[in-house]
Amino acid sequence: MLKFGIQNGLNVARAGFSEDQILTACLLADRVGYNSIWYMDHSNVPQWTKATVLDPWVMLSAIAATTQNVELGTCVTDAIRRHPSNIALAAITLDRISKGRGTLGIGAGEAQNLKEFNIPFDNPVSKWEEQLQVIKLLYESSPDHTVNFKGKYYELNQACLQAKPIRKPHPPTYMAAGGQRTLQMTGKYGDGWLPIGYTPELFEDHAATITKSMKENGRTKEEQENFQYALDIDVYFSEDAEESWAKMKEAVKVSLFKPEVLRVHNLKSIEGFDFKKYFTEYSMSNQDWIVKMREGATTIPDAIARSSVAVGTPDDVIPVFERFVKAGVNHFVIRFWGSNYFGSIDKFASKVMPHLKGNTR
């Protein structure tokens, strides 16, 4: 089954929508047939001083009370700023409030949400892996079944939570992975994968790594068949696709500027650019890194960058989604950009979704 969701991400934050406007958009998405609603987890986006950045777990609880059908998840929360017990309990609470629609989207984190708050960003992937193990243990815990864990970063000593999720065996875990180690972890621990800033070729390449990892880690046939190969993708409806693309292509190339894109598309590395430092030191308030990033991103060819986003009329948008379906996507999480946010939600549901669902039966 092909699924579609909307993300309340940088698009919504940048627009400065009020809480009531966000809830209205989510109610619309629920009524016109979307399958999921997601909310970003950022501390701030200081490059946009008028943006409104809200807590995802609180907002998702409000969205749960407003909607009836859609799955609800974080896109994504990070494993650095919160203890795994907090994350597990939040996911369970959301699942209970929504009557079984809660989902945990989680990643290793990024310097953007940490540096200005003096939160260490050391060994993020190792910490994330331990968090996943701890969260699963706590999902299964109770006063009659306390759990223990002794890792390098986290410890549990006869610990338990005292609420059970509605979804069985627990709320699904969607993992934001984009490197070889985290992709293998996704195949081992995840129920879904939710990357952002991908071309179809990169999606195919990384999906194959996850599929291989699932088999190597003995995941059941049912787990493999039900796995959600999701994608966070940007959509910009416009009557003039070329004009709109010219305005947004720099930002799109920046989102694609990462080693795996360069590898898959046989693009040369940027001399003198240290990706490790980029990912561990970069924050939105660091102008030096922003300049370096933009300079490096300009080397990505337009054709490659444009394949990662959907711009133009519904007829322009449909082929982009069809290509990603062929690459293995079965759950699209859409960030709508442009002035008519509510109209875009409705237009995609009425003009694009029926075509795509009809072609995948």
TrEMBL record:
Keywords: Oxidoreductase. The keyword Amino-acid biosynthesis does not apply. It comes from the Archaea. The keyword Iron does not apply. Residues 20-331 form the Luciferase-like domain. It holds the Pfam family Bac_luciferase. One of its GO terms (molecular function) is oxidoreductase activity, acting on paired donors, with incorporation or reduction of molecular oxygen. InterPro entries: F420-G6PD/mer, Luciferase-like_dom, Luciferase-like_sf. This is Oxidoreductase. It comes from Candidatus Nitrosotenuis cloacae.
